[in-house]
Amino acid sequence: MDFTMFIALLGVVSTISGLLIGWIGRTKAYKDEVIQEATQDASLHTDVSYIKRGIDDLRVDLRLQNQQLAGVTERLTRVEESSKQAHKRLDKIEAR
User: Fold this and answer.
1) For the chain, where are the alpha helices, taking DSSP H only?
2) Residue 1 above 80 pLDDT?
3) Contacts of 32 (CB under 8 A, 6+ apart)
4) Integer Cα distance of 30 and 38 in angstroms
């Protein structure tokens, strides 16, 4: 084997090993990137789920507030009617 053949063979081996090392490095980087994206997606999904639960809780609270307000409105109407009747009776008593 002469020197030029050895150099050519060394160049081919170096090129192939460089390609393999590059491929392995890129594959590892891709896997790390996929893991990082999956972690971010999971975190985002968790945050969105938390926000959804919060909104659902707010809706329940809002419904309860509306029910309470309807009850208070009904009671206020009854009190106003009762007050009106009481004023009429007082007016009759004063007229005597």
Assistant:
1) 3-95
2) no
3) none
4) 12
Q: What whole-number percentage of the chain has pLDDT above 90?
A: 81
Give the pair of three-digit tokens for residue 79: 């009190």
pTM score, two decimals? 0.53
| Interatomic CA distance for residues 79 and 30, integer angstroms | 72
For residues 96 and 85, what is the distance between their CA atoms, to the nearest angstrom? 17
Q: Which two tokens stand for residue 81?
A: 């009617």
Nearest to 30 by CA among 38, 40, 19, 41: 38
Q: What is the largest CA-CA distance in the chain?
A: 139
43 to each of 1, 31, 39, 53, how far by Cα in Å? Answer: 61, 18, 6, 15
pLDDT tens per residue, range 30-68:
999 999 999 999 999 999 999 999 999 999 999 999 999
DSSP state of 47: H
